[in-house]
Specification:
- Two copies of one chain form a homodimer.
- With 395 residues, chain A is an alpha+beta fold.
- Chain A has seven helices and 27 strands.
- In chain A, strands 15-12-16-20-19-17 form a six-stranded mixed sheet, sandwiched between helices. In chain A, strands 18, 21, 23, 24, 25 and 27 form a six-stranded mixed sheet that branches. A five-stranded mixed sheet of chain A has the order 7-4-6-5-8, with no helix packed on it.
- Chains A and B meet through helix 2, strand 14, helix 3, strand 21 and helix 7 of A and helix 2, strand 14, helix 3, strand 21 and helix 7 of B.
Chain lengths: 395, 395
């Protein structure tokens, strides 16, 4: 997380119209420029009254002219009740609203007729929404770092705001590696596979609010990879540089591990992570730019993104919104390797239980595409019976 | 839902590059043009062997040249083991992989040295991912109507696809009504409030994949509202017309209900819904265009959208993806009116329980902006203790 704090601060902020700010993180605290509701208003269609004028056994009152929506009403005169619609301003002199269903008769008279209405006793404040009962003028409406969704931009509109200062998106360079990897659409010869990591991770990163630059596939030549990374990391020009480099593949202990070889001599560590899928992960800086080396299997890539990068972005940059985490019973028994935190793919079923999609294999991208959740099996778990509760992260 | 089936079919489809199709619904079934994995490959770094050549007490084998990634390996010769990396193609003649950790010595010899390795017994198929074990060529990969997220576009990339046929977004006309409603940014006089419904709903609709047209605020003149709706509904030209009209406000039983008045004589019903917030909802067709009349309070608008329109879009059009629904314990006791399904706003806490945000009032847009979930209290519930399980829809 500390790795991303610098770039997040350096990337800066911009002012956007509310709807363009959807999915961005607030750069500043927003205080309410007015109270909500701005004025005491009626919670129901009914009669605005002075509660002190109606004894326990009710009273008959003259019906005044109704309060039209969107205007400041005349003051309530003694002996009168004022027809009022939901949301309309409570007249001066009134302190309660009596719903129309409790009036006799239970409908509004035509305007400009000398009508009376019988109303039951009520207490001050009944069916009145006080000014500022949702938020008071000057109070903190949204704090810096809030990820803006429909409700948050809706609140700012209710406060009369039209634009907002948000953090600029972070820019990531995404490099997929491997001699065996071919761009989708090209011919697939023996021993080759199509690059799904690039599309999968770019999609996940875009949805998480990152600006993604793609380098194409880098083969297993460390010098070529280094040259590519230097071009992007070393521009020095803030607007053109990247805030983060993510590679896929070439991080394990095999004989042809291009990322591991290329990073030798740079400030990047390759740490074994006791997680399945996952395995070794590269982490550090390349020429000062935060660097993450994900494994080469597509499921490992997505799980690495969801477990490490996405939560760090939420915490440091405010976007994306954190995944909701909850507990759900297993629809079936599962096993998990001893000493490893297993992250399985699952589907939350309509009955609230969670079913596994595919086995533990990190190459099962079709099974991943059927899943809507990650299922967390802690490091000390080796087997769980059907019905056991597990932590579930919704995708 | 039947209301939306016609427009969804009529809107048609388009072919998009994978990443541009993110968030769209597949228009057709996608079958796998190749198997995944395309060829049997190794699950580990280790030695590819013919398991029949290694008796129960193990065997010493000559070490052949390694299988480079991304090539078709030479066939395994009798008496040999072939160094192989994770993901590399299993050579003809080999039927199992023995992980490097189980070999003696447990590291790969330099190429072109006459080395031997001692390997333990194994069984055919060990640490081999068979061709087609994730999906077989010709099998259904993704069904029509699937909402495309990172995993789904990642799968299509793994299958070598570069573009996909998706449903075009539906187009909605969003009209906020009310003499009391003012555009954010303008001056707020007594009795007026800022229009938050427009921003709130446009944001929610955009996130749900709708193309939103805004008319601005319509005042409480039914004739003006009718003229506005006719302009948009009646264009006749498919590309310019809207698939759905949504209005806010003007649907209750009060004296100034502009939507209700304007729809008199059209095929729109105003039905009381036993839901809080919510109340009356308009539903029908205006000049053949599906029409929904939402209530005027912002929280009611969002709840109406989430409870009625969004699930219908998911079911009929395939986008957005349905909200995950699960059960969580209440962090506090709640009460709910008898005879009404109450939809409260809540926050799913890190401990998995759900806390209420604000009271039941449908004007509490600041409380809504703190929430990340809708909490469903069924029609027959009047009170629930802390710890009771409720259905939670994550926002």
């Amino acid at each position: 997380m500390e790795l991303l704090a610098g770039p997040s601060a350096a990337r800066g902020t911009e002012r956007l119209p509310l709807l363009d700010a959807l999915g961005r993180a607030l750069a500043v605290d927003v205080h309410a420029p007015l109270s909500l509701p701005p004025f005491a208003n009626s919670q129901m269609d009914g009669f605005a009254v002075n509660s002190a004028e109606i004894p326990d056994d009710g009273a008959e009152l003259w019906v005044a002219d109704p309060v039209p929506a969107g205007t400041a009403p005349d003051a309530l005169k003694p002996g009168f009740a004022i027809p009022i619609m939901t949301g309309a301003m409570i007249p001066v002199g009134a302190d309660a609203v009596i719903p129309i269903e409790r009036a006799v008769p239970d409908s509004f008279p035509k305007p400009n007729t000398d009508a009376v209405v019988r109303l039951p006793h009520t207490t001050a404040g009944s069916y009145v929404r006080p000014a500022g009962s949702d938020i008071a003028e000057g109070a903190l409406a949204l704090h810096a770092g809030t990820c803006l969704g429909p409700a948050q931009v809706g609140l700012m509109a209710a406060l009369g705001l039209t634009a907002v200062e948000v953090r600029k998106p972070l820019r990531v360079l995404l490099v997929t590696t491997g001699d065996e990897v071919v761009e989708p659409g090209r011919e697939l010869t023996d021993g080759k596979i199509y690059d799904s990591n690039g599309t999968l991770l770019e999609a996940a990163m875009r949805q998480a609010g990152l600006e993604v630059m793609r380098s194409g596939i880098s083969d297993d030549d460390p010098d070529a990879l280094l040259a590519l990374l230097r071009r992007h990391a070393g521009s020095g020009d803030q607007s053109g540089s990247v805030d983060l480099i993510v590679t896929t593949g070439g991080v394990s202990k095999g004989a042809y591990e291009v990322v591991r070889q290329a990073m030798a001599g740079h400030h990047v560590e390759f740490v074994p992570v006791a997680m399945q899928p996952g395995g070794p992960q590269g982490i550090g800086r390349f020429m000062g730019v935060p660097f993450l080396g994900f494994p080469g299997n597509p499921v490992s890539c997505l799980v690495s993104f969801e477990m490490f990068l996405r939560p760090a972005l939420s915490a440091v940059h405010g976007t994306p919104a954190p995944r909701p985490v909850h507990r759900a019973p297993l629809a079936e028994a599962v096993t998990s390797p001893s000493g490893k935190h297993q992250v399985r793919r699952g589907t939350l079923l309509p009955d609230g239980s969670v079913r596994m999609e595919g086995g533990a294999g990190s190459h099962l991208v079709h099974a991943l595409a059927r899943a809507n959740a990650l299922v967390q099996l802690p490091v000390d778990v080796t087997e769980l019976a059907a019905g056991a509760e597990v932590e579930v992260w919704m995708l």
